[in-house]
Amino acid sequence: MSDATINTTSQTGEAGFGDYFALLKPRVMTLVVFTAMVGLLAAPAPVHPMIGFAAILFIAIGGGASGALNMWWDADIDRVMKRTKGRPIPAGKVQESEALGLGLTLSVMSVVMLVLATNLVAGAMLAFTIFFYVVIYSMWLKRSTPQNIVIGGAAGAFPPVIGWLAATGSMSVEPWLMFALVFMWTPPHFWALALFMRSDYDDAGLPMLTVTHGRPATRRHIFVYTALLAALALGTAFTTIGGPVYLAVSVVLNVMFLLGAWRIWGRDEAAAELDNYAVERRFFRLSLFYLALHFAAILMEAVLKPYGLGGWA
Fold it and tell me: Which of 75, 158, 233, 238 is the most exposed place for a label (fewest CB within 10 A)?
């Protein structure tokens, strides 16, 4: 997902708290926290509030650690992309070695503390998630294949699984349905961004789909993935984590999302450039609400179930 840089440093050039916090990609961390919390609360096992709070905190710290390590590794391309050149490292506020040290320290701490607070399985999944995001996605996929977002999207899809494992200590189908929602949502979300930020990826030499296959192909891919996502999202309504509330929310959101993807597919490139990619920008903003509201609906179903109101029972 895209993140905004928090810059609260003085004009002396010295790093402030806001710069180190920005290394953790706080906007991405917000998604991590929310989806992990939904995974934890939707699980069938009751969790003590303090244990639940600790689990979400350490998952968030692990997500932030991944962000710091990503910024350390991507410092060279962040310097040439308009969207990222204001980040702490390219802005000269934080040294690369500091980002590396912070990322490694927080990674170890978050995994160890999650194991102590919950269970070994949840901690192991958090460790794998950090490894996947930093090594598999950042170091390998991002610079080598236009499928970087497709495969790499798994990194952002693991938090609800970790949350579920923190509550139950065991695997089941439900957290992987939540994983699949995030996984299938990621490509159209990022490809919409790439449509109106293509020059950034050109400048950085990254093989995003817009660069390797062009914008028309990217538009087709957005529609195909959105259609697959809609089928998955609507189908989830009829599983144990779904229900009538989720179904109502999902129908509305997926109609809007499909219409947006259809408009993007049919767009003439000259017209899109003329209106500064207004349709693509609206679709990108809608994608943020799309995922958040689907997970909010899953959470609502979980909250209502003890009162006999959630799910299909």
Answer: 238
